[in-house]
Amino acid sequence: MDDIGVVATIGFTEKSAEKFFSLLKTSNVKRVLDVRLNNTSQLSGFAKRDDLKYFLKTIANIDYVEIPDLMPDGGLLKDYRNKVIDWNYYESKYIELLDRRSAEKKLDKSIFEGGCLLCSEHKPHQCHRRIAIEYLNAKWDTPLPIKHLL
């Protein structure tokens, strides 16, 4: 991420702490933007909110910011995880949620420049972090280039 205007995304699953922090450091991420609903009870020890905030600053001098306006609704997430709804339905309802929250009006675009949206899913194609940044890019006058860190 040589260009400060790039926004990245990352999931912590299927990554060791070494790989996770190395990806962030080598991509010149300035701040991790946590969009996880359950960020205090994750299975991966290094990704629990308070530990992660410490590790990011200590290991890589990266700031940590929680963004509740981009977190999914608990019921919606539960229905998807329990296979009550499929991905397409989840995605459409999550976009409706972002619309209702007017996320693009509440969030300062500058925090995304050099930022990295964090969630748990390894790949972005079925993760709300991808939907969130694509949604914001569609609303902003000048979209940010996106780089998915795998």
Automatic annotation (TrEMBL):
Domain of life: Bacteria
Protein name per Swiss-Prot or TrEMBL: DUF488 domain-containing protein
